[in-house]
Amino acid sequence: MTVNLTLVVLAGILFGSGVVLLMARSLVRALLGVLLMSNGVNVVFLVASGAPGRAPIVGKASADGVTVGADGISDPLPQAMVLTAIVITLAVTAYCLALAHRSWQLSSSDNVEDDPEDTRIGQLADSDRVPDTDYADTTDPHALADAATDDRGDHR
């Protein structure tokens, strides 16, 4: 099996560019990254399918009356997987566009902001004050009183 080097390089460029765009704070850039990555995966499917051949749906006899065997027939599975990936990419694109549109409506920006609760948990983890579990020991009455109060001293 010979591999088309141009398609392999194209798939690598598409996937690498998609990863770079996916790391951006902008939802539109992240969407473009997902689209580039999905197109790169589709190219990989086509490269992995092997050399092109005849159509996978053939009759028992060719036009000249000779029986056609399985030699030279292309594999239909990669083509079906690419079509499925295209449909899934369309659904993900529609969902990401809806998220970006709603974000633009709410804050007139499509940038993803830091979550304050996530920042607080990160700071607690840095100071080594994160509890191992959220569940208190029910046999110890003092543990129940301590579990009812969080780190700021507020009752839950």
UniProtKB/TrEMBL annotation:
The answer, when asked if Transmembrane is one of the entry's keywords, is yes
One annotated Gene Ontology cellular component of this protein: plasma membrane
The main location is membrane
Provide the topology term for how it sits in the membrane. Multi-pass membrane protein
Question: Where does it reside?
Answer: Cell membrane
Q: Where is the signal peptide?
A: none
Membrane-spanning residues where? Answer: 6-24, 31-51, 80-100
Region of interest (Disordered), residue spans:
108-156
Keyword annotations from UniProtKB, A to Z: Cell membrane, Membrane, Transmembrane, Transmembrane helix
Q: Look up the domain of life of the source.
A: Bacteria
Its family remark reads: Belongs to the CPA3 antiporters (TC 2.A.63) subunit C family.
Protein name as catalogued: Na(+)/H(+) antiporter subunit C
